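Lab notebook: predicted structure, single chain.

Context: the supervisor wants predicted structures on file for every construct in the current expression panel, including those that have not yet been purified. This is the next one on the list. No modifications to the sequence; it matches the entry in the shared construct table.
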Amino acid sequence: MLADIVKIHCLKHHANFPMPRTSRVVVCRESADTHTLSNNFPAEGSWVYCCNCQTFIAWDANRNGVSLKECVFCFSSLNPRAYTCDNCAVTMVDYDDPTLRKHHVVLDWGAPQPACAGCHQFPHSTPQKHFCSVMQCEVATARKNCAFCEMNLQDASLPITPSADGHIQKALAEAEARAREADERRHLAEETARKEIELRRQAEFKAQEIEKRATQELNRVQSSSQESELARREAEAARQQADAEAKARAQAERLAQIAELERQEAERRKVEAEAKAREVEALTREVEEQRRRAEEAARREAEMRAQAEQQAREVAQTYTSKLAETQAQVEQVAKVVKKDRTAIAMTAAIAALLLVAFFYLIVTLLKQFG
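Prediction complete. Output recorded below exactly as produced.
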């Protein structure tokens, strides 16, 4: 039943889990770091109950970033009203939200209604409100000292007039009456739920007996030559149920086979993808090596071309100087033997041959290193 289940929130792990209300030991098992929040809930430890989300929060006042100004679970923050019970370790916090249907509320003057959410008890005296420096908000309590800032509330409390005390006592009486009425309704609901569970258990037991008798009757009818219409219908229903179960089992097996095939296909695709990735990586390395070799060959070719051009320039310079010397010699010979035309013709022919040989040599070098 939902009324017998409470919600617990662990600030350490930011985890939420349900717990039976009758349980006194609260253990957080939401991670490998299992730890006990309380050995005597709600009298031991420090608990904050949010009236909006109906959650018990294992409180740690030393933790940074937590405050009663905003619920750490539902993030309610409008007009917080806090009440610390003087019978247990629960502090109730109520926020304004007219759209919610709350089981417990904190009145504006600090009293819980219908009672404390943890121990279901009323305060022993009129709650006194004060500003708690630890919680950074107003907290009402009937304790002598604040449970958080340890402020002495008897010295800080103001004298209460008889009229105000009468209103307070009247409000407490109304709250007690509403609490008793709520407890009676809760007890009636629990009794109804227990009866319903018992009836359901009895109905299930009777259904099992009827099914057992029907099975026995069906076996007897099958062994006999005559069977009644009722037994036949029951047998047909059992057969249909068996067929449905067989179909469901076959469907489940088929789905399991499909899932296994899909898993195998996914593994195969994964292996293929890994192989393709390795091939691409090897191809990339090969392309990089070829590119490096091409760059080295281009560099060498550029060096060889530069050397050939240098050699061609040197050869051209050498033959140019030799040609100038030859022309000078020819001119000198021409001056000496001006009248010898045969010598002049021979000299010109030699010069022409040397010039042709020079150009032929240059063309040969260019073809070799080009």
